[in-house]
Amino acid sequence: MTAYVYNTMTKKREPFEPKEPGKLSMYACGLTVYDKSHIGHAMQAIIYDMIRNYFEFRGYEVTYVRNYTDVDDKIIERAALENKPALVYSQEMIDLSLKDMALLGVKPATIEPKVSEHIPEIIELIQKLIDKGHAYESQGDVYFEVRSFPKYGCLSNRDPEELRSGSRIEINQQKNDPLDFALWKRAKEGEVSWTSPWGEGRPGWHIECSAMAEKYLGREFDIHGGGRDLIFPHHENEIAQSCAAHDSCYARYWIHNGLILVDGQKMGKSKGNFYTIQDAVKAFHPEAIRYTILKSHYTANIDFCDSAFHDAYSRMLYFYNTFKRVEEIREQFPDAEATPPANITVPNIKDAFIEVMDDDFNTVAAIREINAGFKFINDLVAAKKPKMKQKAGVILAVADEIKTCLGILGLCQNPSKQALAEIQEYLIRARNIDPAEVEARLQERVAARENKEWQKADDIRESLIADGIAVMDTPQGTEWQVLPHKPKACDKEA
RNA sequence: GGCGAUGUAGCCAAAUGGCUAAGGCAGAGGUCUGCAAAACCUUUAUUUGCCGGUUCGAGUCCGGCCAUCGCCUCCA
After folding, report:
1. Which of A78, A102, A287, A388 has the most crowded CB, counting CB atoms within 10 A?
2. Distance (Å, rounded) from C-alpha A20 to C-alpha A250?
3. In whole angstroms, what is the distance from residue A62 CA to residue A19 CA?
4. Does the annotation place A238 within a ligand binding site?
5. Is residue A492 classed exposed, middle or buried when 0-12, 13-18 and 19+ CB atoms within 10 A define those classes?
6. Which CATH superfamily is domain A4-134+149-155+207-286 in?
7. What's CA A454's distance to the chain center, in Å?
8. Could you tell me if A29 and A226 are in contact, meaning their C-beta atoms sit under 8 angstroms apart?
9. Which protein residue's Cα is closest to nucleotide B39 at C1'?
10. What is the DSSP letter of A347?
11. What pLDDT is stored for residue A171 in this prediction?
């Protein structure tokens, strides 16, 4: 079976053929670390983490490069505010980001290069562009000559002439053409800088990705990804630099993820609708965040609002409650055989999962297939017909299968009791519930039930439900769990 | 203004021309239960923003219109 990938360059879904059979080389534009990571970064990281997991699952040897841009104007500005050297400040942000990402189940990329450690490669690439007539030095800066690259605009379908006539292009006397962009910036007094053939300075924005992708993945590699908002100018400029320098094709497939919206608008600091990962993780359980991101196709935008999480919590509770049942069965029947009883058809979750994931990483449909597995398990557990002894093995086998699939999405890999307790903590906090008080009311109810004072017991239960607390009488005693909030429509007026 | 994306049920969201338009959430009915909860079963779009066209066949392709969003300045 072949995987299909939507390629932004051709605007078509194409069969994925790696440059080298069995290997995947992927570059995703990572962070410019001038501040704490936000959930937009998290979305991007989660999506490429999922793609990497999936290719590994399919047997590819994956080299996934995700860079840190640790030198730029904003970093210098912020570091100065905090009275720190720029690279010290950016390293702190990198360390924070790694912690934040780990909370969301994002593994570090295979290689996470930093700009500050690749200055020689960058200088070499710039020199090559100058030598080939694609770049020029001007008062200590070096600019890429857009006119020298006829294909400019091929990714974003922009016409350089129309861009030039646009009023928003900054006029800069040092440039030959308003579209030319900086490869190297002369250092101002006191700024972090490196020695180059053009004097003291530092790299411009786009060049670092071209240089580092080439170093770790070669001049031509398989997948280049990033947020949709990077298509122009960032990725367009990368293409110009790399292709002009080497006359080669650079990335074979371009993929772009959607963006996080808040109140229907792109999240951004200037709009004040901004969540750092730390904000988000404080408000919502990390797995609920991950689920919320993967329950849409990666190219879609996601509106990040309270109501989006009702669904996520409902599902996380369902998944983990089911796994809790499965774990109890496993304890009871550790050696159960996976041969299904005669009249039971076992769904092939894994194949269905692969089929939809091969179709441009359709995580939405993948979750649908996983749902079918859960339903099968719960159905079989509830059924009276085959004795548990006979069906336990099948239940365990299907549970293992869906757990593998969920693992590729980065979900449900924790012990269920622990995960359920964590989710409960979030819901308790969100609803402002006092567990001690709940326990007290529950004790009252237990007493009422023992006296068969059903009305009183039911009244207590109803009052707890009104507070979002579901009460469950089980043979082991009475348990309770907090339910997610009823969904409200996202307020798109803002 | 240019470029691009999106518009599918009360809400979220799949479906890359072809069997009765997935799945989830919320709602309704049922099984189980003292009653519930959880779980399970049944049910909820004669129709995909609007208008035209291509086709044996359109949510899907083409044209026009409307609406929302993004990029064109730093952005994941």
Report:
1. A287
2. 15
3. 12
4. yes
5. exposed
6. HUPs (3.40.50.620)
7. 49
8. yes
9. A378
10. P
11. 63
Mean pLDDT by 10 residues, chain A (494 residues): 90 93 96 94 97 97 97 94 96 97 97 97 97 96 95 92 70 84 94 96 96 96 95 96 92 95 85 88 96 96 88 95 95 88 88 96 96 95 88 95 98 96 94 93 93 92 90 89 75 36
Q: What is the ipTM of this complex?
A: 0.95
Q: Concatenate the DSSP letters of all residues of A120-155 into one string.
A: HHHHHHHHHHHHTTSEEEETTEEEE-GGG-TTTTTT
Q: How many CA atoms lie within 13 A of A259 on its CB side?
A: 14
**Strand B proximal residues, A:38-77, Cβ < 7 Å:** 38, 40-41, 43-44, 74
DSSP state of A114: B
Q: How far apart are the first and last CA of chain A?
A: 46
A419 SS3 class: helix
Q: Which nucleotides of B are covered by protein (CB under 7 A)?
A: 1-5, 10-16, 22-26, 33-41, 68-76
CA-to-CA dists, residue A85 to A71, A186, A192, A221, A230, angstroms? 11, 18, 8, 35, 28
Q: How far apart are CA A339 and CA A472, in angstroms?
A: 33
d(C-alpha A322, C-alpha A156), whole Å:
46
The nt closest to A38 (CA vs C1′) is B76
Contacts of A128 by beta carbon, 8 Å cutoff, 6+ apart: A245
Q: Is A234 annotated as a binding residue?
A: yes
Q: Is A224 exposed, middle or buried (0-12, 13-18, 19+ CB in 10 A)?
A: buried
- A457: the nucleotide nearest its CA (via C1') is B35
Is A38 marked within a binding site? no
A4 touches strand B (CB under 7 A): yes
In the CATH scheme, what is the code of domain A305-413?
1.20.120.640
What gap in Å lies between CA A134 and CA A128, rounded to an integer? 9
Domains A4-134+149-155+207-286 and A305-413 belong to one CATH topology: no
For chain A, helix, strand, coil in percent to 5 are: 50, 20, 35
The two three-digit tokens of residue A237, written as one number: 């400029």
